[in-house]
Write a structure and sequence with these properties.
By secondary structure, the chain is an alpha+beta fold. It has two domains: about 5-70, no CATH class; about 115-248. The chain is built from six helices and nine strands. Strand 7 and strand 8 form a beta hairpin. The longest helix is centred in the middle third of the chain and has 11 residues, at about 150-160.
């Protein structure tokens, strides 16, 4: 078994975002998100394929992290919403909620479905963001696409026209926002998030809106097989999960 220093543990903990659930805090259990880090490190096979990329960002020697789940992990952080953005009971069936509210972050997330349409779980999109906030965002357009929209920007526009979950303001999430969904208590092959609230999640890469500062043709996202973020070429078509800010 590999030794992992306390400094490494703190660094890994700092890489997660979220806050401790009130229920877990009252019981004196866990850290942020109701999870306790339990590192039994071994070199990930994933790191072999990502060696050069991890070296550039200082994470060579990637450790696969497993954490202990606590009984209080599902403490009301997530709330299923109906098509009008209204809360549903916890017993709602899989295909009956199109969105989820994260009470910790104040974000509302798109939920994927098996049904054909804009929100179908296997639809793939290239990264394209032309807003001033995301400079250098042009990657590809919908030309030659069999089932438009095929860019993240075009999907955002279509979903906002649709008024998904009774609202507009849908967008591609920032890197840290997307990472907030990761549940580090779920080991490879994932998907590394709470599928009780986010069914139909693929164990693959999902775009964020955050462009790479080092490579102009790459943008950040999360691979939900391991739960780690990395930059990926913008012209690749991969998964997207949209988000919007919850109303005050």
């Amino acid at each position: 078994m590999m030794h992992v220093s306390r400094q490494d543990q703190l660094a890994l903990d700092a890489n997660r975002i979220g806050r401790q659930s009130p229920a877990c805090a009252r019981r004196g259990k866990g850290d942020r998100g109701g999870l306790v880090i339990d590192i039994r490190g071994f070199r990930s096979l994933y790191a072999k394929h990502m060696t050069e990329r991890w070296r550039r960002i200082g994470l060579l020697g990637l450790m696969l992290v497993t954490v202990s789940r606590l009984a209080c992990a599902d403490d009301g952080r997530f709330v299923r919403l109906d098509g009008n953005g209204q809360p549903l009971p916890k017993t709602a069936r899989e295909q009956t909620w199109p969105c989820v509210l994260d009470r910790h972050s104040g974000l509302i997330w798109e939920v994927k479905t098996r049904r054909p349409g804009l929100h179908q779980r296997d639809r793939l999109f290239s990264w394209r963001q032309t807003s001033p906030r995301h400079t250098g965002g042009v990657a590809t357009d919908d030309a030659g696409c069999d089932a438009a929209p095929c860019t993240a920007q075009a999907l955002v526009q279509a979903v906002n026209r649709q008024g998904w979950c009774g609202a507009h303001g849908w967008r591609l999430p920032e890197r840290e926002e997307l990472r907030s969904l990761v549940d580090y208590g779920i080991p490879y092959p994932g998907p590394t998030l709470n599928t009780r609230y986010f069914p139909n999640t693929r164990r693959q890469f999902y775009w964020s809106a955050t462009p790479s500062a080092n490579e102009a043709d790459e943008a950040w996202g999360i691979g939900f097989a391991f739960g780690f973020d990395y930059a990926y070429p913008k012209d690749n078509r991969v998964h997207v999960r949209l988000v919007r800010d919850a109303p005050p």
